[in-house]
Amino acid sequence: MKLRLAQPVVVAVALLAGTALVGSPAYAIPGGPNDAPTGQGGATVTEQSASTLDTIDPGTTDPGTTDPGTTDPGTTDPGTTDPGTAEPDTTVPTGSFRLDYSSVWTGQRVTIGQNATEFSDPIDAPETLKRVVSWGDGTSTVLSPTTFTATKAYNRAGNFKITVTVTDPAGNASAIPARTVGVTIPAGAISLNKKAVYQGAPFNVKIAKVPAGAKMYRIDWSDGSISAHKASVRSLNGAYIHYYWKWDAAKKTWVRVGKGRIAGVRALKISWGNDKGYAYFQTAAKINVVKDVSGPTVSIKKPSSTNRAASWKTIKGTAVDKQSGLRHVGVTAFRVTSTGKAYCLTPARKWKRYYTDADVNKYCYATGVKVKVVNGKWTLKLPAGLGKNQFFAVEVWAYDRADNFRGTYRSAKITRS
User: Fold this and answer.
1) Domain region containing 205
2) Start and end of every PKD domain (predicted)?
């Protein structure tokens, strides 16, 4: 590197043997170490060393000099742009969204919609934008690039501000105006005709008040089963609670779960509905379900002459249940002729010949002849067929509403008509 001397170098040359002085003071700018002045013969050159005058302190940098091997990070050519520096992204995404309902009941769903044309960013691709729905109750839903709707059901009343925030990769977030949904609890009422019932015993439900706008309602009976009704139906008679149930989608019916019987205080719940769907269930009434431990009692009255066929023409008996009440009372009769032909009485009150126990179960025991009980008494008239020299038997059985069973029978050998 060429060094420029900071001060003039005085060169004096003494000529030998009467020679005159030919050198004069000058600012010498040697091109390098080898350019220093030289003398003739015994001439002497006096020089202030360039290494002394031009040495640069390694701890400092000459502000006027830049090492070509490095780049001053603080200096940029005003006529060029540094390719490593880009303008920051400060553009905010834009968007809007739709809300289907501005007022609902607790449990009814509101849906926001935001399709691909309803949000954008002038710099970033749509799939890079993050979208979050804030429901106003402390919960939120993140929308994927291919998701354009989201639903929400509120579990408490109030006014909730729903927002959809769109954020680009640089962190710029949209300020889409919020939409407010008002959530209320439908005010209805029901009443029961009883405060306590035995297992399986019936009670009645009265719809005392229907909320404004309600078109339907559902009742959760606390046993796993739910029934649906129009709002115009104001009374439900014959309800009961006994076993646990579940809905069988394949069979499209309620099926019993296990063998356990329900007992204790039960909460009946109601869910009101309109065109926006059903609200959440809310407790509407309570009823105490009491265990039925007694079961029914049944009897067959003994005729005056048990060996006469005529004495059995009309069979009489009793059936009583003092707790949950009678659910079913069935009677069947049997006769076997002297030749060994066996018959049983069908529910249609006709004699049916049978050969095996399976035949009896199929034709006669399924329900038996269902008899009507009035003031604890029942009667059954037999069809023609019972006669002399036959074996005869009659059986009565009953189930109460708690499914307790009781049965009894009488038999006789008929020797007279």
Assistant:
1) 189-290
2) 134-175
